[in-house]
Design a protein that fits this description.
Blueprint (H helix, E strand, L loop, with lengths): L23 E2 L7 E2 L11 H16 L1 H23 L5 E5 H6 L9 E5 L2 E5 L3 E8 L2 E8 L1
Antiparallel strand pairs: 1-2, 3-7, 4-5, 5-6, 6-7
Length: 144
């Protein structure tokens, strides 16, 4: 009879027990290799999972929304700058080209309303109306 040699694993030794799961590379993109504890582990730890969520899926999902919100804030800041430059008035008239040069984009607004047959658009803190007088575009700005 042949003797079968089998290796006996000593659980009291300091060497780690062999894992039936092979080593994986962390999905967050860090390049670390790890031995998963479960079959569905894809990240090294919670910090790597959080990093992947905040810099990956969530960021790309909200990319256009963040861009639009940034433009709306920029518009509101431009309106605020020009409104405050004319101190003490409740309503100001400014050349549209000046605001456009400051980065104002009239296509971005959060709402509109018609008052006295005039169409006003809303930003976060202001309402404005763009109109033409003598072939020059003007913008009328009011505090909301």
């Amino acid at each position: 009879m042949e003797q079968i040699k089998s290796e006996i694993i000593d659980p009291t030794s300091s060497a780690p027990l062999p894992s039936p799961l092979s080593a994986k590379e962390c999905e967050c993109g860090c390049g670390h290799s790890f031995s998963p504890r479960r079959r569905d582990n894809i990240y090294l730890n919670k910090q790597h999972a959080d990093f992947a969520y905040n810099h990956g899926k969530r960021k790309s999902k909200n990319k256009q929304r963040l861009k639009d919100d940034k433009t709306l804030r920029k518009n509101d800041n431009v309106l605020d700058k020009h409104f405050k430059s004319e101190k003490g008035q409740s309503e100001i008239v400014q050349f549209y080209d000046i605001l456009k040069a400051d980065g104002f984009k009239s296509a971005y607004h959060i709402g509109r309303i018609i008052q006295n047959e005039k169409e006003y658009h809303f930003s976060y803190r202001y309402m404005y109306r763009i109109y033409k007088r003598n072939a020059v575009l003007l913008i009328n700005i009011k505090k909301r």
